[in-house]
């Protein structure tokens, strides 16, 4: 499929709960990025993978966030436990060998 | 690391006029400069990009210019239309960093009929 698919599109959860966001890359794309978008910070890179191996997750709070790629068709971003300050839109973007990155529609997370 | 600055933060233009958004970058190793358009409730959409071996690129009403010496690049939209209203982001990356994009803060463009 020639688009990045993210699920869920919206998530409302209570503080302390686990949140899992999923991303299906464009077929054949071997680089996956996770970005977080807020009004204050703009688009921040949380982590990225190439050929399913993590390359950089320095933008991610390690104590509560984790990112994985169980296989080439699925990337996940987990937050455990979630906090109100995690409320944001989380985007997955994928790219192939030409460096063009294509974004999904995002997961809007609200932690209450 | 790379730092990208984008100006202006908001831009209001009359339909039919031109809009120009400017970005500067800090890392001389950056060699790929895409522009994204984000509409409300949607993900950023790649609209045009330029690589460091090219000074200018055009696609219908949009064009991008790159000045490697000065480390700045610009987006030009001509004959603006109401559907051009959106937030535009510039970004920079390099092959050394596997295409990791550093984004500017964004420009809210409003085209008034």
Which features would summarize this protein structure in a list?
heterodimer; A: 112 residues; mainly beta; seven-stranded mixed sheet; four-stranded antiparallel sheet; 11 strands; B: 113 residues; six-stranded mixed sheet; 54% strand
Please describe what this structure looks like.
The complex is a heterodimer of chains A (112) and B (113). With 112 residues, chain A is an all-beta fold. Chain A has no helices and eleven strands. Chain A has strands at 5-7, 10-13, 19-24, 31-38, 42-50, 53-56, 65-71, 74-79, 88-95, 101-103, 107-111. Chain A is globular, with a radius of gyration of 13 Å. The mean pLDDT of chain A is 94. Chain B is mainly beta. Chain B is 0% helix and 54% strand. In chain B, strands 2, 4, 5, 9, 10 and 11 form a six-stranded mixed β-sheet that branches. In chain B, strands 1-3-8-7-6 form a five-stranded antiparallel β-sheet, with no helix packed on it.
In short:
The complex is a heterodimer of chains A (112) and B (113). Chain A is an all-beta fold. Chain A has strands spanning 5-7, 10-13, 19-24, 31-38, 42-50, 53-56, 65-71, 74-79, 88-95, 101-103, 107-111.
């Amino acid at each position: 499929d020639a688009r990045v698919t993210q699920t869920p599109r919206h998530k409302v959860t209570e503080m302390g709960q686990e949140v899992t966001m999923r991303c299906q890359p464009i077929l054949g794309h071997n680089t996956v990025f996770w970005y977080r978008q807020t009004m204050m910070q703009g688009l921040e890179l949380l982590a990225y993978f190439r050929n399913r191996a993590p390359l950089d997750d320095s933008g991610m709070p390690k104590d509560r966030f984790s990112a994985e790629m169980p296989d080439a068709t699925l990337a996940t971003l987990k937050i455990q436990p979630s906090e109100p300050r995690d409320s944001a839109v989380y985007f997955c973007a994928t790219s192939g060998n030409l460096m063009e990155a294509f974004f999904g529609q995002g997961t809007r997370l609200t932690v209450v | 690391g790379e730092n990208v600055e984008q100006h202006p933060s908001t831009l209001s233009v009359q339909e039919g006029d031109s809009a120009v958004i400017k970005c500067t970058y800090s890392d001389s190793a950056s060699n790929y400069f895409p522009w994204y358009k984000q509409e409300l409730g949607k993900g950023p959409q790649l609209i045009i990009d330029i690589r460091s071996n090219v000074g200018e690129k055009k696609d219908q009403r949009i064009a991008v210019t790159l000045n490697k010496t000065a480390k700045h690049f610009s987006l030009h939209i001509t004959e603006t239309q109401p559907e051009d209203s959106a937030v535009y982001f510039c970004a920079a990356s390099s092959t050394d960093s596997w295409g990791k994009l550093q984004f500017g803060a964004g420009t809210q463009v409003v085209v008034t009929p």
